[in-house]
């Protein structure tokens, strides 16, 4: 399937959605971020593994860094809003760089959107900053309130993460 | 570079009286001793049999810098082989998992069966004059000097004279069953998630061994959001801490009056699993739950395998589901650790339970877990602080639970069905137990 031309309004809306979403995440507006998610969201980040060329897989089918529904994501966001989420207090300074956006029509009211993500994460004053590079495949659903994220699969580009934890969203 | 010079005797004496010189969590000389005297001898966990169920299945795992292929050979036997070609030392297998009948070195194509035997050697006649120049027979990748398997857990030791694994596990095997033998089908492991943290490897091992004291504060946030049915802060001090063989762990106190099945139901095990758990465990193991009223939680098997069992609410209707995780603190340097964190579940459990238990695990532990996030924040910060020169002037007080004369502030628990010694309430008995073993290794030159 070919991606929609960049001039297609559906592509432009999808691209804008991802950029606006990244702005919310970088501003740590997680309540605002949750509003962009469908109630039936599946938010998935498989564990990436190093396998031989020809092995036929390079991610684990049954193990993720994330495999979340709305309950789990709400709990994570609630936690970050408490006074006791030490790992984000002081908070990370993050920048979600989103590029390589390609939009595909799934038929119906959903778009499949692929993007590349580079997360820069800095904490404190002396620690080295972390980079997390990933490809994302999203399903965006057209709703009365506008586009909403129905599914996200994050294919991280490292088998061994070099960030202290995933107290951040990708 | 520090030129302080390590006063090992005085460091170990301090550690043994529960006053830990802070620099041990960031000292390159200590790390070198750990490599040469501890990891060169101790039994170390590598993998679980469920990760390599079929002939040819393999995973590649390390003991510090040493890479091992852990494979199931064509006869079904588990092999742990040093991942270095006999010829020029190339890493033979550079994937971390897969299925292969043979491993071929990329350099000169020396080829090994999945039991380690050398089977292919190009130009054997032309290059070596055949068997006369290089006898190919009986050549094999170096096997791990010692290997042992317990409940499917594959351990190796770099010391061929290590005591047999069952002797090493001793009384801790009793507790391992709660995590890795909930039915005769055994446990299956998924993962691991792997990530690197800028923390000394000892801190996580000690924390899981017995730090129930950190739960009320470090993990206040998961209580704030109602992830648990009851406030963990007050629950934690009612739990028992036990020391058994090379391991130590924490437990939670169960509600009074429950029988064996009722207590398992309370932590979320479905009726479909409970009879198998009762059958797999001994009367003494059942009594720890039914009569003593304790349920295992975090534990560490010395040196660097930790286990955890907990039971959060996984949905808005308050469904309580337990999960198990195994985790390894793989040392990279004195200030960096690779964490390998597996989700573990009874192989015979219903699919729905496996799904829910997996969800419970992901919310709590592992690279994104809401408990683990705050734990690692502490450990990274300690490691940062331990690297400087002031840390050489500070001894960390690890004497919780002892009087100034070194006596426990209260007697051991009588009503504790498990082997070893147990105390109810807070105390650093378990961490000191872990550190005593650490000290014994570090002072043994040979």
Would you give an account of this structure?
- The complex is a heterodimer of chains A (170) and B (446).
- By secondary structure, chain A is of the alpha+beta class.
- Chain A has one domain: Nuclear Transport Factor 2, Chain: A, CATH 3.10.450.
- Helix content of chain A is 20%, strand content 43%.
- Chain A has helices at residues 9-26, 30-34, 70-80; strands spanning 37-48, 59-68, 93-105, 110-122, 130-143, 146-156.
- A six-stranded mixed sheet of chain A has the order 2-1-6-5-4-3.
- In chain A, a hairpin with a 7-residue loop joins strand 4 (110-122) and strand 5 (130-143).
- Chain A is globular and about 45 Å long.
- The two termini of chain A are 26 Å apart.
- Chain B is α+β, with helices and mostly antiparallel strands and 446 residues long.
- Chain B contains 15 helices and 20 strands.
- Chain B has helices at 8-16, 28-38, 124-128, 165-169, 172-180, 201-210, 215-218, 220-224, 232-236, 260-266, 274-280, 283-290, 351-364, 370-386, 429-443; strands spanning 19-21, 43-48, 57-63, 66-72, 78-82, 97-99, 102-104, 111-113, 118-120, 146-150, 153-157, 187-197, 240-244, 247-253, 294-301, 305-310, 323-333, 336-346, 395-397, 421-424.
- An eight-stranded antiparallel sheet of chain B has the order 12-18-17-16-15-14-13-20, with helices on both faces. In chain B, strands 5-4-3-6 form a four-stranded antiparallel sheet, with no helix packed on it. Chain B has a three-stranded antiparallel sheet with strand order 2-11-10.
- In chain B, helix 1 (8-16) packs antiparallel against helix 15 and helix 6 (201-210) crosses helix 15.
- In chain B, 48% of the residues are buried.
- The mean pLDDT of chain B is 95.
- Chains A and B meet through strand 2 and helix 3 of A and strand 6, strand 12, helix 8, helix 13 and helix 14 of B.
């Amino acid at each position: 399937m070919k991606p929609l031309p960049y001039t297609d309004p559906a592509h432009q809306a999808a691209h804008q959605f991802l950029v606006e979403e990244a702005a919310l995440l970088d501003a740590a507006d997680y309540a605002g971020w949750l509003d962009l998610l469908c109630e039936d969201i599946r938010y998935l980040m498989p564990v990436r593994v190093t396998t031989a060329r020809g092995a036929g897989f390079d991610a684990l089918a049954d193990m993720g860094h994330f495999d979340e529904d709305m309950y789990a994501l709400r709990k994570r966001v609630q936690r970050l809003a408490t006074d006791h989420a030490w790992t984000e207090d002081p908070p990370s300074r993050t920048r979600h760089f989103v590029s390589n956006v390609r939009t595909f029509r799934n038929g119906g009211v959903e778009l499949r959107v692929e993007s590349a993500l580079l997360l820069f994460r800095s904490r404190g004053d002396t620690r080295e900053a972390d980079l997390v590079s990933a490809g994302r495949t999203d399903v965006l659903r057209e709703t009365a309130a506008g586009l909403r994220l129905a599914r996200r699969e994050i294919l991280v580009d490292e088998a061994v993460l070099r960030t202290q934890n995933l107290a951040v969203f990708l | 570079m520090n030129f302080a010079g390590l006063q090992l005797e005085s460091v170990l004496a301090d550690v043994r009286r529960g006053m830990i010189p802070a620099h041990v969590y960031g000292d390159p000389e200590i790390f070198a001793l750990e490599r040469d005297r501890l990891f060169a001898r101790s039994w170390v966990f590598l993998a679980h049999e469920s990760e390599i169920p079929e002939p040819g299945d393999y995973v590649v795992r390390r003991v510090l810098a040493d890479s091992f292929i852990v494979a199931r050979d064509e006869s079904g036997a588990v092999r742990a082989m040093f991942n270095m070609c006999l010829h020029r030392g190339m890493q033979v297998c550079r994937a971390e998992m897969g299925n292969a009948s043979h491993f071929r070195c990329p350099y000169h194509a020396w080829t090994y069966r999945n039991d380690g035997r050398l089977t292919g050697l190009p130009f054997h006649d032309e290059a070596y004059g055949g068997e006369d120049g290089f006898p190919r027979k009986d050549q094999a990748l170096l096997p791990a000097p010692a290997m042992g398997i317990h409940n499917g857990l594959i351990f190796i030791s770099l010391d061929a004279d290590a005591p047999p694994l069952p002797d090493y596990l001793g009384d801790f095997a009793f507790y391992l069953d709660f995590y890795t033998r909930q039915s005769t089908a055994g446990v299956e492991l998924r993962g691991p998630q792997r990530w690197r943290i800028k923390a000394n490897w000892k801190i996580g091992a000690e924390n899981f061994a017995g730090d129930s004291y950190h739960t009320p504060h470090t993990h206040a946030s998961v209580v704030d959001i109602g992830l648990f049915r009851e406030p963990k802060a007050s629950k934690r001090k009612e739990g028992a801490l036990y020391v058994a063989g090379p391991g130590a762990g924490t437990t939670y106190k169960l509600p009074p009056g429950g029988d064996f099945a009722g207590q398992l139901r309370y932590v979320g095990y479905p009726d479909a699993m409970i009879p198998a758990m009762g059958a797999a465990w001994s009367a003494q193991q059942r009594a720890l739950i039914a009569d003593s009223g304790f349920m295992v939680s975090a534990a560490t098997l010395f040196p660097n395998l930790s286990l955890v069992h907990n039971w959060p609410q996984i949905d808005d209707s308050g469904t309580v589901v337990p999960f198990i995780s195994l985790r390894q603190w793989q040392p990279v340097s004195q200030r960096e650790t690779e964490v390998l964190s597996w989700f573990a579940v009874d192989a015979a459990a219903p699919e729905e339970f496996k799904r829910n238990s997996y969800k419970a695990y992901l919310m709590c532990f592992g690279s994104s877990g809401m408990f683990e996030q705050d734990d690692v924040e502490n450990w990274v910060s300690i490691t940062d602080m331990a690297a400087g020169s002031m840390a050489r002037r500070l001894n960390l007080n690890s004497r919780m639970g002892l009087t100034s004369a070194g006596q426990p502030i209260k007697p051991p628990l009588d009503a504790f069905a498990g082997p070893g010694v147990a105390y109810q309430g807070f105390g650093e008995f378990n961490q000191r137990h872990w550190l005593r073993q650490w000290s014994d290794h570090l002072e043994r030159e040979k």
